[in-house]
């Protein structure tokens, strides 16, 4: 009896649960539609089977029955998982619109026009532009072509004007000072030698001073009063056998030494007072005037298309040395500065020719950058060339494809030299090319170059 009652109560519970599910499925067809009701029916059936198994008595000790029950449970769970999801209803764009718009009967005399379903507005496609991620190599080449290229008019007109002024000055010196054996004037400029950039705004005029080697000798820089190996003195020798006046340059002797200051002052007076620059400028179609305030012998040339600065340097070539009449500032007036410019240009071109390198290209970029940054202006020219020459001794790959790597390496080498405050000359390691820089200048340069190692764009910005 108890067993019967239990089974009956179970059947009643099952019957009650079945009634509830039937009612739910009947109403689901109205609410969810046919497809939604089908989905719910499948899920409900699977759940009902699980409930039946959970409430039905187990056959204890029958492994086959337990295995069958387990398999049916996994099948039902798989059935629920594999049931397709009902399609989502289209979201209303405007909540104020009703869900269903009742059809309006056509008015009398109104023709029934076919309903045209307009396509939903498409979202305009935005074409993504490629990100501007240029490599350092591309930035260097772009900077060189856009910022450092010399305009063609300047590149051709500036040397032409300089050569014309050079010829006029040569004729004047020969007529005014025939007793002084000056050599033939010649031009010297990074622009003409392939190492300059930015603008054709400066040219050097080299005036050779021809000395008799039997009457003059060189005193090394270490033995001079400044103890600087880059400055030399030119001593008059054998005055006992060849008295003063034997050499035409004896008039510029100060204390038995050929004075660079005395020669420069004589030439300055000629440039300022003796040469008719207005007439020469009118002949050449430009305006020429000497610069009075400069310690150097400098001319300013203004043309309609170009402005040019010309510096005159007396130069002595003896014992494989090239000495310029460019003494340091101060009371010392007999010193001559050793110039390595000709050797620098020759060596760089020789190295580039041997391995098809891009050293000249790299130097043009570096010189242009340093000239455009006031803090780095004193690094342009000779210091950069010597850094490149030092680096060439250890880095052999100077192909144009490696320009960015070599550029970065030059900056790193330059920082190391600035940290020590010493840049040895490539041709004479006793010479420190930073010796005339102030400590504050070295610190400022070092800070700028150090930052540029990680951010090369700092040097490539327009100034």
Please explain how this structure is put together.
- The protein has about 475 residues and is of the alpha+beta class.
- It is about 45% helix and about 10% strand.
- The chain has helices at about 1-55, 65-80, 135-150, 150-175, 260-275, 275-285, 340-355, 360-370, 380-390, 405-420, 440-455, 455-460; strands at about 185-190, 200-210, 215-220, 230-235, 255, 255-260, 285-290, 295-300, 305-320, 320-325, 335-340.
- Strands 1, 2, 3, 4, 7, 8, 9, 10 and 11 form a 9-stranded mixed sheet that branches. A two-stranded antiparallel sheet has the order 5-6.
- Helix 1 packs across helix 2, helix 3 crosses helix 8 (about 360-370) and helix 10 packs antiparallel against helix 11.
- Residues about 1-10, about 75-120 and about 125-130 have low confidence and may be disordered.
């Amino acid at each position: 009896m108890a067993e019967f009652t239990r089974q009956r109560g179970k059947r009643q519970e099952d019957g009650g649960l079945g009634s509830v599910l039937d009612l739910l499925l009947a109403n689901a067809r109205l609410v969810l539609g046919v497809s939604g009701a089908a989905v719910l029916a499948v899920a409900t059936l699977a759940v009902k089977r699980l409930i039946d198994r959970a409430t039905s008595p187990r056959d204890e000790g029958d492994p086959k029955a337990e295995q069958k029950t387990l398999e049916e449970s996994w099948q039902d769970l798989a059935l629920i998982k594999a049931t397709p999801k009902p399609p989502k209803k289209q979201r209303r764009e405007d909540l104020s619109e009703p869900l269903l718009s009742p059809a309006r009967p056509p008015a009398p005399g109104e023709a029934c026009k076919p309903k045209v379903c307009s396509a939903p507005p498409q979202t305009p496609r935005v074409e993504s532009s490629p990100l501007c991620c240029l490599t350092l190599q591309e930035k260097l080449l772009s900077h060189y072509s856009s910022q450092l290229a010399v305009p063609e008019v300047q590149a051709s007109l500036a040397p032409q004007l300089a050569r014309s002024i050079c010829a006029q000055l040569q004729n004047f010196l020969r007529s005014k000072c025939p007793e002084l054996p000056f050599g033939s004037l010649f031009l010297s400029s990074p622009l003409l030698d392939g190492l300059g950039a930015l603008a054709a705004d400066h040219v050097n005029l080299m005036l050779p001073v021809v000395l008799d080697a039997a009457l003059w000798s060189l005193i090394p820089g270490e033995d001079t009063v400044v103890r600087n190996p880059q400055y030399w003195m030119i001593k008059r020798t054998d005055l006992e056998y060849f008295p003063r006046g034997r050499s035409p340059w004896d008039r510029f002797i100060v204390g038995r030494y050929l004075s660079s200051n005395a020669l420069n002052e004589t030439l300055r007076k000629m440039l300022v007072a003796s040469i008719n620059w207005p007439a020469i400028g009118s002949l050449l179609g430009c305006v020429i005037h000497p610069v009075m305030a400069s310690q150097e012998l400098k001319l300013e040339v203004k043309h309609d298309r170009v402005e040019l600065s010309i510096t005159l340097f007396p130069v002595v070539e003896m014992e494989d040395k090239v000495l310029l009449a460019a003494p340091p500032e101060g009371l010392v007036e007999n010193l001559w500065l050793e110039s390595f410019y000709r050797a620098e240009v020759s060596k760089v071109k020789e190295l580039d020719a041997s391995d098809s390198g891009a050293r000249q290209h790299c130097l043009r970029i570096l010189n242009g950058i340093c000239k455009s940054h006031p803090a780095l202006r004193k690094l342009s020219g000779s210091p950069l060339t010597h850094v490149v020459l030092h680096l060439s001794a250890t880095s052999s790959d100077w192909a144009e494809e490696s320009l960015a790597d070599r550029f970065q390496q030059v900056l790193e080498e330059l920082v190391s030299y600035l940290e020590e405050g010493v840049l040895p000359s490539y041709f004479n390691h006793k010479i420190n090319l930073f010796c005339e820089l102030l400590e504050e200048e070295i610190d400022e340069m070092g800070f700028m170059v150090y930052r540029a190692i990680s951010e090369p764009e700092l040097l490539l910005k327009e100034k």
